[in-house]
Design brief:
CATH superfamily of the largest domain in chain B: Thiolase/Chalcone synthase
Structural class of chain A: alpha/beta
Number of domains of chain A: 2
Largest sheet of chain B: 10 strands, mixed
Largest interface: A-B, 65 and 65 residues
CATH class of the largest domain in chain A: Alpha Beta
Shape of chain A: globular
Radius of gyration of chain A: 20 Å
Helix content of chain B: 25-40%
GO molecular function, one term (chain A): 3-oxoacyl-[acyl-carrier-protein] synthase activity
CATH superfamily of the largest domain in chain A: Thiolase/Chalcone synthase
CATH topology of the largest domain in chain A: Peroxisomal Thiolase, Chain A, domain 1
Largest sheet of chain A: 10 strands, mixed
Number of helices of chain B: 11
CATH architecture of the largest domain in chain A: 3-Layer(aba) Sandwich
Organism (chain A): Cochleicola gelatinilyticus
Strand content of chain A: 15-25%
Distance between the termini of chain B: 17 Å
Shape of chain B: globular
Order of helices and strands of chain A: EHEEHHEHHEHEHEEHEHEHEHHEEEE
Oligomer: heterodimer
Keywords (chain A): Transferase
CATH class of the largest domain in chain B: Alpha Beta
CATH topology of the largest domain in chain B: Peroxisomal Thiolase, Chain A, domain 1
Number of domains of chain B: 2
Family (chain A): Belongs to the thiolase-like superfamily. Beta-ketoacyl-ACP synthases family.
Number of helices of chain A: 12
Distance between the termini of chain A: 10 Å
Protein name (chain A): Beta-ACP synthase
CATH architecture of the largest domain in chain B: 3-Layer(aba) Sandwich
Chain lengths: 398, 341
């Protein structure tokens, strides 16, 4: 029996590319997508750096062949594009052939449209149509419509661990035999709401972020969407499908420490990693690479490092954060990093943690700084969010 | 697979459902523009310093959760699951207004922090120091049912022995007014007032002390009116039941054009079944079905239907299986099957 739930397709759009190949190339050459914000007019333009998707809304709408007057939030646009790629990659043509579900995730929802039109809702009944995109479930519904999914459709929102939790639910539903196929992932666009929210928390860096560096100054926000297609063993056999990798471990735990900050001992992160290993039936030394949460905030990187050290002791595997390339894409982070974890399995490589100079003195466990080819069988991917929400996933090549 | 037993059902709503134990005897239809919740005395449950920062949704959620755990005799649950359609909308409004009015200057982080969708689940965990699985579903009218489905899955597969699951939405101050305007623009919009509330339920794989079983939940995005009955038939068949085995149906009618989905069943396969309609007393909101679920639980526990909820005049001596059906605007459908234990 296989270890986990098969992944047969993936799709992604992020600051480092509009499909899997472009993202892969950027990862292999450490090409960053961090820069000055251009799609949103904000007072903070000069004092933040972001991982923005270059494509404008109308470009994405055009590539999706949406009719002129449709109202899609940017999260719905990014999500539809990535989810469609995932289906194509999995070579799924008839969606209704199997019991198919969609578990998406978002934190921003339709906030980009809401914040643009909010002050007109009272006076101008014409603009109220934009309000309908506000609820978090809206982008998921738009994606479901684009894919033709009519059965189980839901949305998870647990801040920055959202997509990791969507992947976990999809895997659990397939394992339990409730569904044959689930499209899982997340989408979040940049918005003034989140930019200003993180700004008030004083955790945005005005430079390119430096995860796990002693002198890190904070995070760069990003926007992205990514989806995986998970399929049951029976479908794989019947359709003789190519498997990209397996979701072998997953867990969610709560830090129960503070609404926004992580505990000094990284308890939630520790519990999530520990339980994910247990679900995957793996020993810590079997993990070949960790795609860390690594946001480059003072708090996260220290807390996560402590938790990693608690799990792995003196034998910490190669780990890195890819957020220095993509920015922190909030709800989508767990999904884009799942794609990167699978690329790591496919290419048998470890991605460097760019912009790193000096290890955090308290711990002295430096991340991987060079791109390297090596035997990679199991990759751990961490995603931690507000509300102490900590998730860890394990992807395996067999 | 293990069975999912229901041990407690607590609800804060537009009716006196929190303190009052008379199962809606004094309840009445809401006639005001909005169905605001009747709030408990929060200081009896939450430290005063914490209350100040909490929006109504968080307070309702935290207190309903606490009471639900008490009644279920669960100290620390092995999972906390929350459904919320709009999330912490009052803090979202606050931060949005401050952001726009002050042109991105002089902002404080509090309302941004509290606006995060998983605030209720996080606050429950923080209060209990509960480090277990913590999930928040935000998919419109199936936010709560997605949580129920997860809760049942956790218990069935022995991933957790005890689960706290609930749903919560708050009215806020502005979004509800705007959504009202949208309804007024429709030829046949929602006829019951928009409302708010919270319901939490203690579930476990242990039977002792339980009064009902969560038999099954099905969540689906779209279906045609023509297909709804056959869809339900398949759901019941899956659970070894026929239409006539259902002793009461609780439907989420809100008076809008999409009520045809309910009418389709009420006028055919459930013509002789006690029919319950609850949104005129709870108000409509994305997690209003929590009120229906709460009523379904107490119906099985007490073996009676509150007069105010009964739509037809049919009653039964015994209530064994209760079915809930809810949808919103022809989307976000859910079937929930409860049985007496």
């Amino acid at each position: 029996m296989k270890r986990g739930v098969a992944i047969t397709g993936m799709g992604i759009i992020s600051a480092i590319g509009t499909n899997v190949e472009e993202n892969m190339t950027a990862l292999l050459f450490s090409k960053t997508g961090i820069g000055e914000i251009s799609n949103i007019t904000t007072r903070h333009q000069k004092d933040i750096k972001v991982g923005e998707v270059a494509n404008t809304n109308s470009q994405i709408a055009k590539s999706l062949q949406l009719p002129e007057n449709t109202i899609f939030s940017r999260s719905a646009l990014l999500g539809s594009l990535a989810a469609k790629q995932a289906l194509e990659n999995a070579q799924i043509e008839r969606i209704s052939e199997y019991r198919t579900g969609l578990v998406s995730s978002t934190t921003v929802g339709g906030m980009d449209l809401t914040e643009k039109h909010y002050k007109t809702f009272q006076s101008n009944p014409e603009t109220l149509k934009y309000l309908k995109s506000h609820p978090a479930g809206d982008s998921t519904q738009k994606i479901a419509e684009q894919l033709g999914i009519t059965e189980f459709v839901t949305t998870i929102s647990t801040a920055c661990s959202s997509a990791a939790n969507a992947i976990m639910l999809g895997a659990r539903l397939i394992k339990a035999g409730k569904l044959d196929r689930v499209i899982v992932g997340g989408t979040d666009c940049l918005s003034k709401f989140t930019i200003n929210g993180f700004k008030t928390l004083m955790i945005l860096s005005n430079e390119n972020c430096t995860p796990f560096d002693a002198n890190r100054k904070g995070l760069n926000l990003g926007e992205a969407a990514a989806y995986l297609v998970l399929e049951s063993e029976a479908v794989i056999k019947k359709a003789n499908k190519k498997v990209l990798g397996y979701v072998s471990g997953y867990a969610n735990a709560n830090d129960a420490f503070h609404q926004t900050a992580s505990s000094a001992e990284g308890e939630g992160a520790f519990l999530a990693m520990q339980k994910a290993l247990k679900v995957a039936n793996l020993q810590p030394e079997e993990i070949d690479y960790i795609n860390a949460h690594g946001t480059a905030t003072l708090n996260n990187d220290l807390s996560e490092s402590v938790a990693i050290k608690r799990i792995f002791g003196d034998a910490v595997p190669d780990f890195s954060s890819t957020k220095a390339l993509t920015g922190h894409t909030l709800a989508a982070a767990g999904a884009i990093e799942a794609v990167y974890s699978i690329v790591s399995l496919q290419e048998q490589c470890v991605f460097p943690n760019v912009n790193f100079k000096q290890p955090i003195p308290e711990l002295n466990i430096p991340p991987a700084v060079k791109f390297q080819k090596k035997k990679v069988r199991h990759v751990m991917s961490n995603s931690f969010g507000f509300g102490g929400n900590c998730s860890s996933l394990i992807f395996s090549s067999e | 697979m293990k069975t999912c037993f229901i041990h407690s059902a607590i609800c804060i709503s537009a009716q006196e459902t929190f303190y009052n134990n008379d199962f809606l005897k004094e309840a009445s239809e809401v006639t005001t523009e909005f169905a605001s919740a009747i709030h408990p005395v929060y200081k009896d449950y939450i430290p005063p310093a914490a209350i100040r920062r909490m929006a109504p949704g968080v307070k309702m959620g935290v207190v309903a959760a606490k009471q639900s755990l008490n009644e279920a005799n669960i100290n620390i649950p092995e999972a906390i699951i929350v459904g919320t359609g709009m999330g912490c909308i009052e803090d979202s409004e606050k931060f949005l207004n401050a952001l726009i009015d002050n042109d991105e200057e002089f902002l404080a982080p509090t309302s941004f922090i509290q606006s995060t969708h998983n605030t209720v689940g996080a606050q429950i965990a923080l209060g209990l120091q509960c480090k277990a699985y913590n999930m928040t579903y935000v998919h419109g009218a199936v936010s709560f049912e997605s949580g129920l489905l997860d809760a049942q899955l956790l218990i069935q597969t022995s991933e957790a022995k005890t689960v706290l699951v609930g749903g919560v939405d708050e009215l806020g101050k502005e979004f509800s007014v705007f959504f009202n305007k949208i309804e007024k623009q429709q030829p046949q919009g929602i006829q019951v007032p928009f409302g708010e509330g919270a319901g939490f339920f203690g579930m476990s794989s242990e039977k002792a002390g339980a009064f009902a079983i969560l038999k099954d939940v099905q969540v689906f995005e779209t279906v045609s009116v023509a297909d709804i009955t056959s869809k339900l038939k398949a759901f019941l068949t899956n659970n070894g039941l026929l239409f006539q085995d259902i002793d009461a149906i609780l439907m989420g009618e809100n008076g809008d054009a999409y009520d045809v989905y309910y009418h389709e069943m009420q006028a055919s396969v459930f013509l002789k079944t006690p029919q319950i309609s609850y949104k005129k007393v709870s108000g409509e909101f994305y997690t209003a079905s929590v009120f229906g679920f709460w009523a379904g639980c107490h119906l099985l526990k007490r073996q009676e239907i509150p007069k105010i909820l009964l739509k037809n005049s049919i009653e039964k001596k015994n209530y064994q299986h209760v079915l809930l059906y809810n949808q919103y605007k022809g989307k976000e459908h859910s079937f929930t099957l409860l049985s007496r234990c």
